Write the structure tokens for this entry.
Amino acid sequence: MKVGPIFVWSNKINSFIMKTLFTSLIVLLFSIALNAQETFTLKVTVNNAKSDEGKMVYSLNTEEQFMKAAPLQAASMEITDGIAIATFKNVPTGDYAVMVLHDKNSNEKMDFSDQGRPAESYGMSNNPMSYGPPTWADAKFTVEAHKEIIVRL
């Protein structure tokens, strides 16, 4: 059987399309694999709350967000026997700081006394003991694997 030029031309086009689709699929899968960032779980425990009143409010912050903007992630947890635990999921590798507030009146903010001092207990990652506002340098830690930390109020 004699094959005409249109049939040969059609096979060449189909072959080209299949090669192009296959190459595009390989490039797409490779770029997805390169851009996929491994994430981890961060478990934060407070074990020294003076009462079970209110909630424990947690915030996970990057340096850009620390004490300035909305956190990367936040959680509000019940307190039982002076203990509250928050778990942050899908945390990318990087440097972070955790701030924790014992929000006794559940108003989702830190309350202050008439003298301007915090009226509710709070703590930071690394448990720095300082007078005045906490600093990023004192509170930062690195996540590069699943991690558990304890924050003391």
The mean pLDDT is 86. Helices lie at 5-35, 136-139.
